[in-house]
Amino acid sequence: MKLNKKIYFVVLILILFLAFNCTSACCIGPIETEEIREEIAGEVTEAAADENFTEEFEEVEEFEEVEEFEEVEEPVEVEKAEDPVLIRLDEIQEQYSLEFRQYLESLEKNYLENILSDDNAVKAESELFEWRNIFYGDKIIFTADKGIFPSTWYDPEINAKAESLSEGEIERSRSIIISALDKYPIEVLKDDLKSVYILKSMNFFGVDYGGTNSNDCVYVTNSGEDMGYSDIYIEETFHHEFSSVLLRKYKQLFDESGWRQINPDGFEYFDEVTGGSGAIREGKASKEFDPEFHEMGFLYEYAGSTSENDFNSFAENIFMGDESFFKTVEGYEKLKAKLDLIIRFYNTINPRFTIEYFKEV
Prior knowledge:
Elements: H1 2-28, H2 30-72, H3 84-95, H4 98-105, H5 109-116, H6 119-138, E1 140-141, E2 161-163, H7 170-181, H8 186-192, E3 195-199, E4 201-204, E5 207-208, E6 211-213, E7 217-221, H9 231-249, H10 256-262, H11 277-281, H12 291-296, H13 307-318, H14 323-330, H15 333-349, H16 355-360
Parallel strand pairs: 1-3, 3-7
Antiparallel strand pairs: 2-4, 4-5, 6-7
Helix pairs in contact: 3-4, 6-8, 7-9, 9-13
């Protein structure tokens, strides 16, 4: 009986234990269980979605990086067509010399293009260039040897005297004269100039001269920069004197009558007899620009001494390319009329001489 009670008691505990577990399981209920299942499924789905988004984002980011790389990629260079002038100059340099090429490059554009288009023209220009180099080396002279002047200049009346250039002024003088010569077409120099003399001093008729000329030579003095012989003064003197050489040779091309008519009514040049030496002796050789003379048609006092000196005054200025000179001339009707005549004269000698040429020279 006691055994049965014990068995009964054990069975009862087991029943209660089973009943308690069943009750806990039943408290969750089918609805709540379904919600838990859905929540779990949602978390799984969300996790999967996050994973897909991450993969898509990485793909987009990778794509954008590719695009960015393509944007910074260096562009393919488009091959430009080479300048035919440069190509031609390269050929000429190879055939002739670098120095000849550099000379050609210094020429005005239109003239250069005409030369480059014709092999014969290139050859002719090369020959002129060779003559130029010889002339610059041998015909710019600094010594006052006997016989540098025409024989008649040594007659007692003129009594020509000269002194050789100081050693220390030779290189500066050479550079100045070459700069002046380079402003002329070589054919003009070859046809019309035999030699250029740069001396320390010259004296004719008992008067010191800054410059003079013969039929084919130009003489210029240079006593040193500290004595007023600046680069500009020396170059202007060369152009002044060489213009007389050209005027004498091509006088038929110059409208001297029209030039004189520009002057005031009844005006007479005051030193035609001595050619300007009298003006120098009497202290009437100022070359300072003066508005009073501008109104009359002259650049300065000395221009009123002879018609040739008047002509020279314009020549020495047009070759300097000074913008202020051209502005001054434009302000006076008579000066402008004379400028037109002298440009026409030079243009007849060589068509490269134009108003544009002189303004850019």
